[in-house]
Known about the structure:
heterodimer; A: 289 residues; MetI-like fold; 2 domains; two-stranded antiparallel ribbon; 73% helix; B: 284 residues; alpha/beta; Rossmann fold; 6-stranded mixed sheet; 8 helices; 10 strands; binds adenosine-5'-diphosphate; binds magnesium ion
Amino acid sequence: MIHRLRRAAMFVVAMLLVVALWEGYKAIGPAKGGDVLGFGILPRTNDQVMPHVWSMVTGLFDPAQRQGDQTVLSVVLGGAWYSFRIALVGFAGGVAGGMAIAVVLTRFRLAERAILPYLVISQTVPLIALAPLVAGWGGKLQIGDWVWPKWMSAAVLGAFLAFFPVAVGTLRGLKSPNAASLELMDSLAASWWRTLVKLRFPSAVPYIVPALKLGGAGAVVGVVVAEISTGLKGGIGRLIIEYSRQATSEPTKVFTSIFGAALLGLTMAAIVACIDLALMRNRPKESAS
Amino acid sequence: MSTTSGAGSNATASAGTAPNAVEIAGLRKVFNANKANAVEALVDVDLTIAPGEFVSLIGPSGCGKSTLLRLIANLLDPTSGTVLVNGKPAAQARQDQDYGMAFQQSGLFEWRSVVRNIELPLELKGWGKAERRARAHEMLELVKLGDFAGHMPWQLSGGMQQRVAIARALAAHPPLLLMDEPFGALDEMTREHMQAELLQICARTSTTVVFVTHSIPEAVYLSNRVVVMSPRPGRITEIIDVDLGSDRDEDTREATEFYGRITAVREALRGIEMGAGPRGIEDR
Ligand SMILES: Nc1ncnc2c1ncn2[C@@H]1O[C@H](COP(=O)(O)OP(=O)(O)O)[C@@H](O)[C@H]1O
Ligand SMILES: [Mg+2]
């Protein structure tokens, strides 16, 4: 309990520190930007580029459109909620796919050597390039009455980033039981599936949990990037683009949309933390991550 | 005492009498056969163990004790020879859960409570939940851990974990219990205590036991017969009967007959160690 309070306090302190750095640099930094050794790397500190933190906060309550009573806050929250649901779908898909692949690779030793390199290579394909491709393929897809919804492409890309860490973590975990435990299951004449369910999966949990953390973050990044590169409307990715176009007239708006994206990531992290707590309760403390 | 040692060629017991708990004939095991790193782990092993007997396997490290136990358990296949458990081929006996097994590491599943660890063999046998629970609690009483059903394994001491492992091995009431240095990691006090308890449990459940150990006194205290093995290649050099009666308690450890048998086993081990040098045997 003390431990958790301390972590919460550390989080607040870290936030305050970021605010202090921001405002501190804004106070002492050069208004027109500056050069270090001839490189223009010091950002300008005027209100256009670096608005005050408090004006970002008040900016949340400005109307989103010139004529309209919807605030920026509600638009950003709406966008974050939209993207969040897509990211959840992507996360779920990625986790299911990652675990399925890990099971197949555990079952067939040969498959591991044949397939694993491709999984690694798959993660080096730039997401920006992949997003329009997936959207293009999806757009042609129609099964009976069911038409591929546009958001599905974003979910697929979220899943694409989520599945890899989950697959690798699960694979390691499924192989983690020691020889004695496997021998025990053998001595009880347990089938391969029974051994998977009763021994390998439970042993894999401490490996799966950190993989889920990476996977959750991956799903969020995948969805936001896919929204940006396919121009999907309604999500936080699109808002970031829109608001950065309006940066000259309303400089705080783009920051509020970035807050929205951060909130999205934090919510996903919180969900994974809850899964962590649920799965790792009753486990010995030292194997908890 | 039923010391039916020697090759058991009469595989099927005659009608009416129970089959032998274990019957091993002409057993040989070579690891990595036909390769450069081939190891001849066991040769010419013949051993018959009657129901209800307690037999220890003792010998220097690497003489094939664990290998022999794994062959009985059908976790390894023999290179040649036959293993019958409970009158059936070892593979069939494993399918039927005719034996339970306990190792030096308790091997409890850390994500399962004590009672659910004991239920594992019953789950795999397809028992219903209520029956499983009832039997697991029965087993917990047997190993005197009735108050620890809901504990997690890592909350128990090493000795208690080993008792849970024994309860798990016996949960399905198998006629045979195979143990590979189960008390090897325990301190001396706990160890002697566990030995006494094991004898009580086996007497009450009339379980046959094959017990691998490094300790001469442990082997003598527990066993009806001590099987002495020699390394390279592993074989049975001598089988020593231990006539200490069936009611063994702490006084047994002080009895002159006890020391006599310890000396006999020690001399049998010396005999095989003339060439190999003494290692891996505990004299305590
Ligand atoms: N899986 C294996 N592969 C190759 N050699 C093995 C294997 N298991 C055991 N051995 C060898 O067989 C011999 C007997 O081993 P083991 O039965 O474990 O001895 P003990 O239990 O008496 O100490 C040793 O020389 C060991 O190195
Ligand atoms: Mg051994």
